[in-house]
Amino acid sequence: MDTPMRSSPLALTVLSLLSYKPLHPYGVQRLIKQWGKDQVVNVGQRTGLYRTIDRLLAAGLIAVRETGRDQQYPERTVYEITDEGRAAARAWLIEMLRTPKQEFPEFPAALSQLLLLEPAEMLAALDDRRDRLAASLRAMDATAATEAARGLPRITMLESEYLQAVTAAELAWLDGVVDDLRSGRLVWSVEQLMAFAGEAE
Predict the structure, then answer these.
(1) Residues 45, 113: one domain?
(2) pLDDT tens digits for 46-63?
(3) Maximum distance among all Cα pairs of the chain, rounded to whole angstroms
(4) Full domain range(s) for residue 15
(5) What DSSP designation does 6 have?
(6) Cα–Cα distance measured from residue 94 to residue 106, given in angstroms and rounded to the nearest whole number
(7) Helical H runs in 37-118?
(8) CA nearest to 44, candidates 32, 56, 62
(9) Which of these, 31, 181, 11, lies nearest to 91 by C-alpha position?
(10) Is residue 165 domain-resident?
(11) Which helix (DSSP H) or strand (DSSP E) does residue 181 occupy?
(12) HSE on the CB side for 195, CA within 13 Å?
């Protein structure tokens, strides 16, 4: 292939799973969910997984191992990783680990447009988010305790550990913002903002 395939979290995950054993797409999706990798890669839509597999195949990073038919299931294609795929997976992984990437998640984008809301609306929305994050963090803590009790090595739980730390940090930050809104320490006026906008012109 003339143009190398660009890395993505899902493509890396597919290559990683295929490096353990050949799998058909349903098996890949099942393992992603079974191993909790759906917390860090999006496999909600199976079409995205199939498109990724097609791109990996076209790039020569995976190959068809066999196509089988079972009376209970439609025809299934089993894929295996190639030597080029193993090399690409290692290179992508090292690059993702070492280089911070500018990403554009929804929440910071929403924060940048808060002036569309009244203070009470903003407070209610952030309060809801705080409650949901707190519930999510409790679930993460419970899962981590269960995994630790099973004796899993820490290396298998680092992504969960990272998500816990990020969620806890966001929750602490939200607590501060919500408290500042409630106490009146976080205030603004349209006139003040319009004056700043005028200076920027």
Answers:
(1) no
(2) 899 999 999 999 999 999
(3) 72
(4) 9-98
(5) P
(6) 26
(7) 46-58, 83-98, 106-111
(8) 32
(9) 11
(10) yes
(11) helix 158-183
(12) 5
Q: Which two tokens stand for residue 46?
A: 């199976």
Q: Would you state the structure tokens that stand for residue 76, as one six-digit string?
A: 């299934």
pLDDT digits (tens, 9 = 90+) for 92-141: 999 999 999 988 999 999 999 998 888 899 999 999 999 999 999 999 99
pLDDT (0 to 100) of residue 1 = 46
Task: Answer whether 79's CB lies under 8 Å from 24's CB.
Answer: yes
Contact of 185 with 123, CB cutoff 8 Å: no
Residues 6+ apart with CB under 8 A from 68: 75, 76, 78
The verdict on 18 and 93 lying in the same domain is yes
Show the tokens assigned to 66: 């066999």
Compute the distance between CA of residue 80 and CA of residue 15 in angstroms, rounded to an integer.
Answer: 9
Report yes or no on 2 lying in a domain.
Answer: no
Do 87 and 57 share a structural domain?
yes
Are 41 and 17 a contacting pair, CB within 8 Å?
no
Residue type, 39: Q
